[in-house]
Each structure stands twice: as structure tokens, then as C-alpha cells.
Amino acid sequence: MSSLPFSSLDPIRADDEEEGTEDKGMRAAMMSKFLEARTVMLFGGVDQKLAERVSMQLLYLDHLSHDPIKLIVNSPGGHVESGDTIHDLIGYISSPVAIIGTGWVASIATHIFLSVPHERRFCLPNTRFLIHQPSGGAGGKASDIAIQAQEIVKMRERIARKIAEATGQDYEKVLKDIDRDFWMGTDEAKDYGILGTVIKHASEVTF
């Protein structure tokens, strides 16, 4: 495969402004190689910029072919709707996606992790998982605060249903579990139904 035009698939992020030209060029070259290997990196907080970059890369790879894609995730979570975009897009494209968690897969990142079938959910040995209810800093008029509170409740119920569907857990149990931060190591995540397989080597990822 010819070298991919990664610069067009990598929108400038605010924290990139401090990087020197040489660092940016090296980063772009490395990410281009990852794309050639049909590997997408999702690292850091989930926001609109990250969702845009990951979405463009997934769509581009799916446009090239419908061969499998690996998505590597290390994230504390972030913006729910941005996570929803990545979650839904993984199901939208024709290429099968395997997700490999590393470090931590938390909050809305766990929602993204659950976008693929159980047998395509992998993680490295020291990964931690977190599920919890969405939160928001409601402000403004009392009527607006009430509307925001209602939307958070709806979001909480929707995420709980997705976790229940993807793990086989009872919906009411999930609602109770996400009332507070619910941390899991690899064994707990497997028992809960979030994680499929703990791996040590890339060769262990199957589709």
C-alpha cells in the first residue's frame, strides 16, 4: 500500500501547538504507518476533535477496503456525544473492528469499548475499566437546570441499557452499579461481561 496522506486525517489539536515542526512531522509519519497497518489510536480524553480524527481514520480505512481494523484505546473518558459518535460509527462501517484496551478504559471510553462483539474485545494485562453514570455541570435558569437534569437521567438510562445488552447483566443491576464509580481489573471486567480476552501479544488478536 502506498504511503497514506495522514496529515489530512489528523486535525490540529490545541495541545499540538507546542510541538516543534520536527516533532509534528515524526508524529505524522508514525501515525501514517499505523494507518497502513489498519490500526487506529484512541488515546486521551474523548472530545469533538478526537472523535473527528478517529472517525475520519475509520471511514478512510473502510473506504480503502473492508479488511479488519484494530482500535487501541487508552482513555479516561470524556464527552458523551463524542463517544457516541465513535461507538455508532464502528457499527456503521463494513470493516470488522477489534478493540484493544490498555492502561485504562473509563467512562465513555468503556461505551466505545462495548461497540464491538464480546469476542473482539481485548486488553493488555494491566488495563483497568470504569463504568459510572454521566455527570454534568448544570447552570443557568432554574428551568434550564431542570431540563439538563432530565437529559442526564435519560443519558444514564441509555448507557445502562447499552452496558446491560453488551454484557448480559441485568439492567437494574447495571443502574445500581453505575450509581458510583465502579472500577474493575481484568478479572472483574471478564466476569462482568465487558472484556473478552486478556492478551500479551498482537498475534493474539482475532476477528
The number of distinct structural domains comes to 1
Rg, alpha carbons:
18 Å
Strand content: 15-25%
Measured between the Cα atoms of the first and last residue, the distance is: 22 Å
Order of helices and strands: HEHEHEHEEHHEHE
Q: What's the CATH architecture name?
A: Alpha-Beta Complex
Q: Say how many strands there are.
A: 7
Unreliable runs, pLDDT <50, ≥5 residues? 1-8
Estimated structural class: alpha/beta
Helix content: 40-55%
Main beta sheet: 7 strands, mixed
CATH superfamily: 2-enoyl-CoA Hydratase, Chain A, domain 1
Number of helices: 7
CATH class: Alpha Beta
How much is the average pLDDT?
89
Q: Tell me, briefly, the overall form.
A: globular
What's the CATH topology label? 2-enoyl-CoA Hydratase, Chain A, domain 1
